[in-house]
Amino acid sequence: MKNITYIILKNIMIISIFAVCTYGFTEVRSIVAEGYDMYQNAVGLESISNRIEKLKQDDSYITTDEISVEFKKKIIQSEDQRFYYHFGVDPIALGRATMHNIQAFRFVEGGSTITQQLAKNLYFTFDKKLERKVAELFVAFQLEHMLTKDEILELYCNVVYFGEGCYGLEEASEHYYSISSDELSEEQASALAFTIKSPNYYNPNVYENAAA
Known about the structure:
Elements: H1 4-23, H2 28-45, H3 48-56, H4 69-79, H5 91-104, H6 114-123, H7 130-146, H8 149-159, H9 169-177, H10 186-195, H11 199-202, H12 204-211
Helix pairs in contact: 1-5, 2-7, 4-10, 6-7, 6-8
């Protein structure tokens, strides 16, 4: 079993380093404090367990057995190649994002894992503020302790946005291809995985018509 104290210290260290590298030492305390308050307020209004339970009651919710193997493979390749090996944060992606933020002198990239993206979709807006990123990290760490990797991936596939008002793989499959998600071909699965990078520009209706 993982040592809880070690995990907490490691998480705090990652959050602190990310904040310092991006915004400077003097702002770290307020950023982390505000982010933690945002996290506390979010889960205080509705616990993660309750939020997940409500999500599973949706008519379009699908379990991991109903998600095509091809789509799961494509989404991991596209969004989070080290998904099964990290603890909610990918230090390599985080370091790369931090360097880009330093070069741009602003928050332009977050290095988000699938777990972090799930946290954001469950609770937070998509504004690029570091306080929100800190809050997202706290939720992501909690998700990693509560759930298995396969459960996290299942939830992610049910909340991620695919453009044109479609949330979740089942809605996207029916909207773009008029089929159930477990009927997706390899090409269709690849197209939907690619859509997530920019749903308004890369969804099948826009991207395939532009390429025609």
